[in-house]
Amino acid sequence: MAKNPFALDGKTAIVTGGGTGIGKSIALEFARAGADVAICSRKLEHLEPVTKALRDLGRRTFAMAVDVRQEDQVKAMVERAVAEWGRLDVMVNNAGASFRAKPEDISANGWNTVVGINLTGAFLGCKWAGRQMMQQGGGVIINIASIAGVYGSTMMPHYGAAKSGVIMLTRELGTAWARKGIRVNCVAPGPVETEGYLDVLKQAGPDGKKTYDAVAARVGMGRWGKVEEIAYPCVFLASDASSWMTGETIVVDGGPSARDMEG
Question: Is residue 91 located within the same domain as residue 199?
Fold first, then answer.
């Protein structure tokens, strides 16, 4: 029987923002596919339940508190993975944050924070993972962007600008490192049911339900996405099944609505 090209057996991976939401799902699906997975986020307590779940799946794992805006912390995360496992096969730059605001109301500090976490954090993850992967002869980097980086976001222009930067960074590094054995690709999710977003909507009461339904109505499939529906394409990008892909962005957003296609 031919080897399963979607398997991640024997691979090692880091997932930033791996304690909740999409990052947590990516870490778990990587483990189910056979990989050992390290996770990080700014708050260590978010990570402990996930590392237990990864161990229960029979995988090696560890967790670190990392602010992805701090280069020394990102570097230390990569170095620990290599020290414990001997190599780093897959880096997933998933950590992100944002807030809703009118463009004219965003402070310089708010702008810098969102761009720092989403874009600078992705760059630093790419840089230090890329350096290691060059030394070992190859690897895979996956960046998590957003459809806000493809279509824009009037109420989160700082987030849309940062995620657009992530998409272009992916294209540039995919080209720069293609002949060094390093593939760099990106996933741009649409509206996904993460714990954080659903909590915000619940706190808004009836208005939150209206917002939830309005967002679903703008999706071609008429619903929000599930976290695992973003994790599965990441397994594909991490595996040999995508061995002839680099510099690309996969949009996973449930499709355009009929209203968007009219006219």
Answer: no
Question: Which CATH number goes with the domain that contains 243?
Answer: 3.40.50.720
pLDDT in tens, 121-145: 999 999 999 999 999 999 999 999 9
Which helix (DSSP H) or strand (DSSP E) does residue 12 occupy? strand 12-16
Catalytic annotation present for 159: yes
Phi/psi at 159 (nearest 5 deg)?
A: -70, -45
Look at the pTM and tell me if it is higher than 0.90. yes
- Lowest mean per-residue pLDDT among 98-107, 183-192, 199-208: 199-208
Residue numbers of the domain that contains 206: 193-224
Sequence-ordered alpha helix ranges (H) in 10-70: 21-32, 48-56
Residue 188 one-letter amino acid = A
User: Sorting pLDDT into bands at 50, 70 and 90, what band is 202?
Assistant: confident
Residues 172 and 238 in one domain: yes
The mean per-residue pLDDT over the stretch 78-97 comes to 98
Q: Which residue has the higher pLDDT, 260 or 106?
A: 106
C-alpha to C-alpha distance for 125 and 148, rounded to whole angstroms: 21
- Give the total number of structural domains in the chain: 2
d(Cα 175, Cα 230) in Å, to the nearest integer?
24
Beta strands (DSSP E) in 108-213 are 139-144, 182-189
Looking at the fold, whether 218 and 99 belong to one and the same domain comes out as no
Given 159, 197, 212, 232, the catalytic residue: 159
